[in-house]
Amino acid sequence: MVDASLRSMILQIMRTMRDEHGISFLYITHDLATAHQISDETFLMYQGHTVEHGVGTSVLTQPRHPYVQQLVASIPRIDMKWEGTITLPDNAASGHSAPVGCPFTARCPYRMDICTTTMPKLVQIGADDQQAACFQYEQQSVAHS
């Protein structure tokens, strides 16, 4: 945790090193704002599992996985008044997930029966290089094949 001006300087140094010297960084953070600023490729994880992957900032600007959608929607915006409440199911609030299936099932508004028994794989979404581990996209991929 550093203050905003120091964080800005560090990110600028990282961008300069990347652009001028071809240096790559593995940047692990909970701060989506800095991830958005620095990332060429983004992986978002939930309980140790990659739920979405994309090139550039597509994961943060056009989230596909329900967890990432909720995560991005929860980011406070200075130009909008917060309205509403956040309610978590008891088992999701404790951070425990089912031993099988999608770890986000308890919180997911789109859950299907298969989500409780099978771990979804990352599947390609659309023409870009974005991927999400969600059966709602896997079902669409099968339908378009």
UniProtKB/TrEMBL annotation:
Q: Which Gene3D superfamilies match?
A: P-loop containing nucleotide triphosphate hydrolases
Question: Keyword Ribonucleoprotein on this protein?
Answer: no
Query: Sorted alphabetically, which keywords does the UniProt record give?
Result: ATP-binding, Nucleotide-binding, Transport
Membrane-spanning regions, if any? none
Q: Which residues form the Oligopeptide/dipeptide ABC transporter C-terminal domain?
A: 51-115
Instruction: Tell me the GO BP annotations in alphabetical order.
Output: peptide transport
Question: What InterPro entries does its record include?
Answer: Oligopep_ABC_C (IPR013563), P-loop_NTPase (IPR027417)
Superkingdom of the source species: Bacteria
Give this protein's Gene Ontology molecular function annotations. ATP binding
Kindly provide the name given to this protein in its UniProt entry. Oligopeptide/dipeptide ABC transporter ATP-binding protein
